């Protein structure tokens, strides 16, 4: 152990002081917003991130499944899957750009 080392391993556990500070800062922001009359949406970033992930995964999985089914029915292996995967990627990026460009309320 180093001479100036406190002996705590900061990589394994979260520091309760930092958690308390985060909570106090969050409460202060909410109180300031209430005092100034500004509405604060604390879960907006979280919900927007979930929408991005679901758009990406849903588009890719859905297009891959449809492409695989087309390949099975018409015997065009692997072209239906490849074409629809690229279309799914394009749709996913378009949805992500639309989500990112939404105006805040």
UniProtKB/TrEMBL annotation:
<protein>
    <recommendedName>
        <fullName>ATP synthase protein I</fullName>
    </recommendedName>
</protein>
<comment type="similarity">
    <text>Belongs to the bacterial AtpI family.</text>
</comment>
<keyword id="KW-0472">Membrane</keyword>
<keyword id="KW-0375">Hydrogen ion transport</keyword>
<comment type="function">
    <text>A possible function for this protein is to guide the assembly of the membrane sector of the ATPase enzyme complex.</text>
</comment>
<dbReference type="Pfam" id="PF09527">
    <property type="entry name" value="ATPase_gene1"/>
</dbReference>
<keyword id="KW-0812">Transmembrane</keyword>
<feature type="transmembrane region" description="Helical">
    <location>
        <begin position="79"/>
        <end position="97"/>
    </location>
</feature>
<keyword id="KW-0406">Ion transport</keyword>
<dbReference type="InterPro" id="IPR016989">
    <property type="entry name" value="Atp1_alphaprobac"/>
</dbReference>
<dbReference type="InterPro" id="IPR032820">
    <property type="entry name" value="ATPase_put"/>
</dbReference>
<feature type="transmembrane region" description="Helical">
    <location>
        <begin position="52"/>
        <end position="73"/>
    </location>
</feature>
<keyword id="KW-1133">Transmembrane helix</keyword>
<keyword id="KW-0813">Transport</keyword>
């Amino acid at each position: 152990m180093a001479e100036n080392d406190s002996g705590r391993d900061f990589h394994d556990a979260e520091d309760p002081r930092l958690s308390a500070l985060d909570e106090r800062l969050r409460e202060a922001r909410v109180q300031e917003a209430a005092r100034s009359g500004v509405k604060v949406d604390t879960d907006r970033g979280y919900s927007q991130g979930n929408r991005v992930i679901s758009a990406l995964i849903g588009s890719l999985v859905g297009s891959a499944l449809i492409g695989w089914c087309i390949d099975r029915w018409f015997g065009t292996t692997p072209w239906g899957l490849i074409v629809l995967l690229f279309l799914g990627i394009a749709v996913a990026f378009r949805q992500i750009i639309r989500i990112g460009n939404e105006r805040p309320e």
